[in-house]
Write a structure and sequence with these properties.
about 450 residues; alpha+beta; 5-stranded mixed sheet; FAD; monooxygenase activity; FAD/NAD-bd_sf; monooxygenase
Length: about 450
């Protein structure tokens, strides 16, 4: 079950609407891997009342180590001082995916969301606001929320790609290792600091890893450029994979990253195809809304995918909590598009540039990257980066981290809310802005009473 569907169902139900969540599986949390919760996501989870629980199950990140090239040379570290995060309100956290899923499921159940498990959706009709199930049954709602992930079938019902990015596929490998095994190896022992996030940057790949589960496990994610054939089964997460079948030469990894891969007893894999941008996150009928990876085409495995997805959910809840009658629904659907589309486009462009930078091949681009990183990374806890130097490299990351989805809705409503109340049938108040978007997984139907 995807976090996006749970979060969207929770915020919409909390806003007072009848919500049915359709889940193709049985809803049980199986992922033992980790995710990174940047400040914008941590802030949302705190707003939803999960802060005290996160204090027990999550670990705050205080240092990021960067290693470059096949030799694994240390480029430097970013020490996350209190003065770095104080303006962001919340910290950068490590949390297990399955545990966060269970927390969001509990929130949704407590709010009264209805669930239908083992229910596969084959498609959606934007005119009738209905979905067709694998059984042939058709379900109707006032609004369909497409939260069905990177391979979204809901997205295909309103897809209008306006820009195709470079057609680059990515192989994602994820696995966890008992920390005790790392402590037994002299080379790997330094990686077991529970507050440190390790990055290995190489030719066509990036590896990132950190301690998880109260210090018991070490979670590793490898994102590698992939030029091989893509089978249908490769595009879904496979819980047990033979990595040799992908034809990638993993001997190019830094020796420590190779050791981690050798220690993995169970590797999950997925091939992700690059998709184009969208010119709208909603259907022309205002009856279908895309959220999460169904809307944003960031490569899974990064630390912005989940944050953007839950920002979408919060935006929906804040907007739909202001509905006074059904005539206002289409206007607020358009408001969602106007608020989230620029954010999605900014994150997508940043992520594409960031991935290319991290995976740079040997040559001038990598040398320039390493030199610039060394200028902005520090080696000592007592050192501080100059603000101008920091913003030169990490400014866009800071913009992503500082985002507050609730405030964005409040700002929008402060400008245009009175016009919606006075003119509920007006389709759009803000001039149309041509932008873009991409993907996510699970389906949620919201019916407005």
């Amino acid at each position: 079950m995807l976090l996006t569907g749970l979060a969207s169902a929770y915020t919409l139900r909390r806003a007072g609407h009848e919500v049915v969540l359709l889940e193709k599986g049985d809803g049980k949390a199986r992922s033992t891997g980790g995710l990174r919760s940047p400040p914008n996501l941590t802030k949302l989870l705190n707003q939803w009342g999960l802060g005290p629980t996160l204090d027990h199950i999550a670990r705050q990140c205080t240092r990021i180590n960067f290693y470059a090239g096949e030799s694994g040379d240390t480029i430097g570290s970013m020490v996350i001082h209190e003065d770095f995060i104080k303006d962001l309100v919340a910290g950068f956290m490590f949390v297990q995916h399955g545990k966060l899923q269970s927390l969001l499921l509990e929130l949704a159940e407590q709010e009264g969301v209805s669930f239908r498990y083992n229910t596969r959706v084959l498609g959606a009709d934007p005119d009738s606001a209905s979905v067709v199930l694998e059984t042939g049954e058709r379900l109707y709602g006032d609004v369909i929320i497409g939260a069905d992930g990177h391979g979204s079938v809901i997205r295909s019902s309103l897809e209008h790609e306006v820009n195709l990015l470079d057609q680059e596929n990515h192989l994602i490998l994820a696995f966890t290792i008992p920390v005790d095994q790392l402590r037994a190896d002299e080379d790997l022992r330094p990686l077991t600091n529970p507050s440190t996030w390790a990055f290995w940057l190489g030719d066509g790949y990036v590896v990132h890893a950190n301690v998880l589960n109260e210090g018991r496990d070490y979670t590793v994610t490898i994102v590698h450029n992939y030029a091989g054939p893509v089978r249908e089964c490769d595009e879904d997460w496979r819980s047990q994979s033979n990595i040799t079948e992908f034809g990638i030469d993993f001997t190019q990894l830094d020796s420590r990253a190779k050791k981690l891969l050798d220690l993995a007893s169970n590797v999950s894999s997925r091939v992700v195809r690059t998709r184009g941008q969208l010119d709208s996150l909603v259907s022309e009928t205002s009856k279908i809304i895309l959220v999460g990876e169904a809307a944003h085409s960031l490569v899974p495995g990064g630390h912005h995918c989940t944050a953007l997805a839950l920002e979408d959910a919060q935006t929906l809840g804040c907007l739909f909590g202001r509905i006074q009658n059904k005539n206002q629904v289409s206007r607020l659907v358009t408001a969602y598009d106007e608020i989230r589309l620029p954010r999605s486009n900014f994150a997508l462009q940043y992520d594409a540039h960031h991935q290319a930078m991290l995976k740079a091949s040997p040559g001038p681009m990598r040398e320039q990257r390493d030199a610039l990183l060394r200028q902005t990374l520090i080696q000592d806890e007592d050192e501080h980066m100059e603000e101008a130097t920091f913003m030169k490299v990490w400014g866009n990351e800071f913009v992503l981290f500082a985002h507050d989805a609730t405030e964005k809705v409040e700002d929008w409503w402060g400008q245009y809310g009175s016009l919606i109340v006075q003119c509920p049938n007006r389709h759009s108040i803000v001039p149309n802005v041509e932008i873009s978007v991409l993907k996510d997984t699970n389906q949620t139907r919201a019916r407005v009473n």
